[in-house]
From TrEMBL:
Organism: Cellulomonas bogoriensis 69B4 = DSM 16987
A single GO molecular function term of this UniProt record: heme binding
Compositional bias per record (Low complexity), positions renumbered to this chain: 1-16
EC supergroup of this enzyme: oxidoreductase
Protein name: Catalase
Domain Catalase core stretches: 74-462
Residues making up the signal peptide according to the UniProt record: none
Amino acid sequence: MVKDVVGGSAGGSDDALTIPGAPGSRPPTLTEPDKPQGPLPPKADQRPVRPVSPTGNLDPSAADARAQTGAHLTTAQGLRLGDTDHSLKAGPRGPVLLQDHHLREKIMHFDHERIPERVVHARGTGAHGTFRSYGTAASVTRAGFLGKGVETPVFVRFSTVVGSRGSADAVRDTRGFATKFYTTEGNFDLVANNIPVFFIQDAIKFPDVIHAVKPQPAREIPQAQSAHDTFWDFVSLHTEAQHHVIWQMSDRAVPRSYRTMEGFGVHTFRLVDADGGTTLVKFHWKPVQGVHSLMWEEAQLVNGADPDFHRRDLYDAIEAGAHPQWELGIQTFPDTEDQTFEGIDLLDPTKLVPEELAPVQPIGMLTLDAAPTNFFAQVEQIAFHPGHLVPGIDVTNDPLLQGRLFSYLDTQLTRLGGPNFSQIPVNRPHAPVNDMLRDGFHQQADHVGNAPYKPNTVDGGCPFAVGAGDGAFVEVPEPVAGAKERSAPASFADHFSQARLFWLSMSPVEKEHIVRAYTFELGKCYEQAIKERQLLALANIDPVLCQQVAQGLGLPAPEPTVVPTEAAPSPALSQVGGTWPVDGRIIGIVADAASDLTGVRELRQAVHAAGMVPLVIAPHGGMLDDGSGEPVTVQRTFLTARSVEFDAVLVAGAPVPAPDAAPASDAKAGAAQPHVTAAAVDPRVTLLVAEAFRHSKALGAWGDGEAVLRQAGAAGPGVVVGTSAGETLEQIATLLGAHRVWERFPVTV
């Protein structure tokens, strides 16, 4: 028979010719189809690309399908190579020939292997994990991944904001805490920070604040710092930034570890339940190990000793089995017409709601348990967007959030080279995709069908839209009214009350650190007028804060221009006063061959059994051998170790100066305490212990190790001298629950 162009029959013979030109594999119907069906199969004369991985693996379903394959060196096209050390030349001393295709490919790819770094959050670290929902949010949202017991794979990226990719980790800065949930309903991105408020209230000012805090254009300095004139010029003039700034001057801006860092969604979001009811919420990540920070001197030492400190800490913890965990919680608020709670405007991203007014309700647990196999492919290429939503979670009219919804796609286009960044493996959703988006740079999909438009009959009507009952995302029908105007609500004009709330909620030692941070940062500024203007902002926050910073700057403290408000302190804002698990803490054990190595062996087992990580610090690498037949493996040496790496230090003996204990070999060897008259102990050990003592860390010793504590001048609260390694560790572990021994030193605030 002969088929016509719409697939009908023109005769009764089965061996007739097929008339070419049919647009699809099935004939279209007269009316638009209304019964959902999947994409039509290809026509008989069509064949999709064979499913081979980007690296030529013929089993693309394998877990390592995208890894390099084969034992031999090849070109990008799979051509085996016998030499990649020499260009193709006209004789051994002749010119390189234009036909050298391997040279051209190799150099071309090298010349283009860098992509633009993120404008902000350029320096990042990422890891894989799982989010397990408790089901406690099911009453306020129909989001499937928040159902009881649902486990969702995630990828989390931590980052600093200001510095470039090559900057240091432990800078005074805001941190990003972005989580991509690969849910069965599509990807949901919670793009959070470690500070619950932001510098600005409206996204139109985002270029201004970033231009102000980035290195100054004339000299491209300082890198990854806010201690310069342009930043303080902006925030002292633009006082809505003052609440965020006081958080940045607190210990929150220099976390001890990503594992001890809180995360906040910053904005108010809207949850939608199964019946369409709505609730306003703020998202919180609570670290299971508690919130803990570096001291400022520690941070400065860290950036010199190990600029990759936070990155290394995260990956070492995962490798050691001390998997970092955070509990996700929500603060909930009635979705009222004015969108305020207890007088706080929920659409103002420079405001928070104290947890004493709206408790954080736990809804699930995040566990990170795997590092990336390739940093560029995963950490650098992952693309977050606050508009990546799922049914049951919607946005609000927060003007900063609204601008972010517009901005994030733009930045991915430039950074990742085109509109198909969602097809990069780390960005791919774990849900079926039928988007009718076609072509463009880096298109990796092999779309089928001939009708990427709606409505159609050529592809059987596919893809079909669905209703809310079948999992559609439906925006909340929030009424919109008002004249077009460039303005802000009157409630946005309060720039100081919550900065004062934060100050009043701090413990004395935290206040001391805030004063010193302002004094350090403003002391780095050149322009006197900028310092004076910022002091005026501090006067509007608190007179004691202003007076102490002014004293450090050698300037008079101005009178406030607004009366500082009274506020009940919020204990939840303080990092001090709680007790936390000791899992993952790093314990430094100082020893040499003459130390109590039996105790060291027992101590290492006990530290490991307690979920902590023991690192032996010795005069040299390799092994410490006391002749028992059980040598102790060394992880750090007096040359390579620095106190900032350890949460506590235990001393097993009194190591005599090693052969390299001289300033010419190791400058630290010249840093012994002034009162030390004889180098009976290696001076680098004395320095390590003295630094840890100065940074309010727990210290312990037994046996001959007590002499080291004495020589370092370490005595008083948090310094433990035990009769055995086990007894010493028991007391140290109790001290570690509070992170530091803050009572060791008096404060002046």
